[in-house]
Amino acid sequence: RSNAPPWQWGATHAVDFVPFVEASVRNRTNSKSIRRELIDAVCKLHVPLEVDRSAMSASCLFQDSDGDMGGSAWDTIVHVSAPPGFPSVMPVVEMQTVSHLVGGRPLSQRVEGYPYSPRWAAAEMASRITQAVAGHLPVFRDYVMARMSAQHPVGVAPISSFNQPAA
Fold first, then answer.
1. What is the pTM of this model?
2. How far is 83 from 58, CA to CA, in rounded Å?
3. What are the C-alpha distances in Å from 56 to residues 43, 91, 164?
């Protein structure tokens, strides 16, 4: 919505709308610049796997816990995107498995409810996203393990191992 005056035949001129058009263009340009800053800040903290440079709205990152989760590394791809309306709308953060598939597809889960303010600098936003991912990693791992257990319950052999000749 715009705060532009309503058009009144004979009383309104196109030049009356110039400040509103300029403000709209400035807002769109600032939004794209802020989105680019966020994605760049996230990429400085992590190794980027893929970055959407055309819209600067999405980035895929590799998160490795280095064995903090009970002795074995837990590899996760973290997708960060700055949706339209950013920074008023918080970035979308989604974690995805690297090596655990259900039905041939990787498992994923959104990270929600993390601290966020549209007034923070991009570096602060990226830092908070990193902290949220680190805090959500145990939850995501439990989710993945529960889904994997449901797919292959303990004591139930996969169908391919039935009717195999004994060695």
1. 0.69
2. 9
3. 11, 12, 52
120 burial level (CB within 10 Å; 0-12, 13-18, 19+): middle
- Cβ pair 39, 80 in contact under 8 A: yes
| pLDDT number for residue 162 | 41
| Locus of tokens 């309306």 | 85
Strand partners, 51: 59
* ∠ CA 130-136-137, rounded to 5°: 90
Quick one: pLDDT at residue 59?
A: 67
Residue 80 tokens, joined: 């960060």
- Amino acid, res. 71: G
Mean pLDDT, 10 residues at a time, the chain of 167 residues:
68 73 62 85 85 68 54 77 86 89 89 93 94 90 88 55 46
Other Cβ atoms less than 10 A from the Cβ of 146: the count is 11
- Residue 84's φ and ψ, nearest 5 degrees, are -55, 140
Read off the DSSP letter of residue 71: S
Question: Could you tell me if 34 and 116 are in contact, meaning their C-beta atoms sit under 8 angstroms apart?
Answer: no
> What is the residue type of 123?
A
Mapping DSSP to helix (H, G, I), strand (E, B) and coil, where does residue 5 land?
coil
